[in-house]
Amino acid sequence: MRRGGLDGARDELQGGGVELTLQRKVSIAAVTLALGFLAFDSLSPGGSGLGPASAGAAQSPPAAAAAPAVPARQAAPSLRQRLEQARKGLQEPASDGFATPKAWLKSPPESENESTARSLAQRSADLSAAHRLTGVSLGARPLVVIDGSAYSPGMSLHGITLRSIAKDGRSVEIEAGGVVASLHLDTPPRSGGR
Predict the structure, then answer these.
(1) What is the Cα–Cα distance from 185 to 173, expressed in whole angstroms?
(2) How far apart are CA 174 and CA 142, in angstroms?
(3) How far apart, in whole angstroms, are the C-alpha atoms of residue 85 and residue 96?
(4) Residue 41 CA, distance from chain mean position
(5) So where are the chain's domains?
């Protein structure tokens, strides 16, 4: 028979009358986990801080008027506003929804292209000025003399590659360091076999 009142409750607690069922164990674990997450969130840097500092918006203490004003943080633009702004930046109509807009692709400014073309032309002129074509021999095995060294087509020597010899033998095309230049002969070429 069960006793009523405090004596019955004391007997149940002492005798293990409170049974930890699976449902109670899961409930206790869930509450413990929730409290742990709440403590971690409020103690971690950048957490939501559900303490008294965040409650300041609800209650304004009288000393707040004497404190220096903290500038209010501007709200970040919404996703919709950012997408509309990106769409306005596009100059072309979107014909293909999956194509990358030309405005998003990087293209070098025109000045870089022009300076690259000028620098290549300047490097080519410098290469032509630095070397001298002094002789050309046409025939079965054509040879040219550049800076006192003999070259045949395709041959590389002293950092210079002879790319081609003109049919008239008055000019040759050389390459050095990826730069192509033409050298010209002042005297008429000699034909081989004479």
Answers:
(1) 12
(2) 15
(3) 19
(4) 33
(5) 116-191
- The Cα 3–Cα 17 span in angstroms is 13
Question: What number of other Cβ atoms are within 10 A of residue 180's Cβ?
Answer: 15
Residue in the block written with tokens 């801080």: 49
Average pLDDT, stretch 32-38?
A: 93
The strands making up 143-146's β-sheet, listed across from edge to edge, are 149-151, 143-146, 133-138, 190-191
Query: Topology of 116-191 in CATH?
Result: SH3 type barrels. (2.30.30)
Q: Whole-angstrom Cα distance, residue 122 to residue 23?
A: 85
Return the bridge partners of 136, or none. Answer: 144
Burial of 144 (0-12, 13-18, 19+ CB in 10 A): buried
What tens digit of pLDDT does each residue of 95-125 get?
A: 666 777 776 777 655 555 666 666 888 888 8
Q: What is the DSSP letter of 4?
A: P
Q: What are the strands, taking DSSP E only, across the chain?
A: 133-138, 143-146, 149-151, 156-157, 160-165, 171-176, 179-184, 190-191
Q: What single-letter amino acid sits at 2?
A: R
Q: Name which of 40-44, 60-64, 67-71 the model is least confident about.
A: 60-64
